[in-house]
Amino acid sequence: MTQPHPQPNPQHHDTQWPRWEVFKQDAPGRPHQAVGTVHAGDPQHALLTARNVFVRRPAAVSLWAVREDDLLTATPEELTLNPAVLNTPGEGGTYHVGVKRTNKRSMTFVDLSGTVQATSPGDALRQAQVMHPDVLAWMVFPESAVIRTDDDPGTVDSWFAPAKDKTYKQQSSYGVIGRHVGELKRSGLMPRQVNEEPHVGDHKVYDHPHDTGKVKP
Amino acid sequence: MTATTTTLTPTQTQTLLLKLTVLADDEIILAHRGGEWTGHAPILEEDIALANIAQDELGHAGLYLTLAQSLGGSDPDRVAFWRGPDDYLNARLVELPKGDWALTMLRQFLYDTYEALWLEAATRSTYAPLAEVAAKAVREEKFHLQHTALWAERLALGTSESTRRIQTALDELWPYAAQLFQPIDGEAELTGVGILPDLSAVHARWHDLVTRHLHDKCGLILPANAEAGAGRDTHTEHLAPLLLEMQSVARDYPDAQDW
Fold first, then answer.
1. ipTM
2. What is the pTM of this model?
3. Which of A158, A166, A167 is the best substitution to test chain B (most B C-beta atoms within 10 A)?
């Protein structure tokens, strides 16, 4: 890098494909959870890449993708600084409401908590704020923006079932060079883990389908 | 499952063992070509996706070779890493260099269609262990097929450059695909007793599906049908360097116990 602060080029167009938020459902009856994003050229492509990126290993039964432009999110601080976000215009109809309750989590960031009838994205956000006053962030998006995997047996069988048979090595089964991180923590040389919910590695315990063990990929 | 375990004659066992090796070799070599994109695919998401597909194909090879081992074959790692180009029995289609993204996706599409159809037929094998392997692998193959069919369509109907690239790839790969449907010696006997799928029936279904997708839906021009050409013991100059790289770690550390 010869230029530490390159000037924005007005001729430059973003060549990235659109970004899609991915929501994963671990088991029937559980809420869909935001797990991250993918870039993809179109809705079907978004679902296919989401399946590869987010559900090759852990168990899942359904994926949703929502284009970034269709999401409205806010933190309490953002609402204080810019209350006008509650006036964000758009289509009326059914909106999904998601909330982020904690920073002490990896892999999943926002839980969908249900739907509301709203006159606009801003109205949906206002209702989310009333229903869930004490959270770290809200997310709303219209039902009409959701792209879903099919729930027919063929899709479940080819998209989600194979992951249940897959096994992998836990981080802990690999050797380490130098001192193990656990040793550093015990001797007070490193902060304690912030992951306080039950996890094995990066996986929440309840969705972790396999026993820890020595297995080949 | 309606499949029952057929008792194999010694001749049938030898033929099946060879067929399983052929199937595994196609998967191993194609998986390596797919793996060559790791860190080099057009976007991160597709990098991960192709690595997943490659790893699945390698998993299928593991299933075939484990079954072969139960029939008297060698340890799967020995088979994969200690045979040279003269002993590999993969089709020439899968050993061609990875080319551009269009060639990679189109090859994977042609292969996935074949494999999904073959496996689907193999789930009805009268030899139960093969039917079980096929039932396991076919699920992943159907997913691969959706992914690669999507790419073939997007490239064919994309820009003039993407159309040109995928048509060029089709022109290059089409003659090689015929070899996938060439039975091995003795295969007819196993097909006759329902142990192996009928390759000519798989070929007909493959031709129909591929035509409907690439020609009818994507508007590509299918080249004239080609003969399968020389047998599976004949390779292009591309296989030897591939094996040299693929087998280098195993051969440098022959005593390694754990990976």
1. 0.87
2. 0.85
3. A158
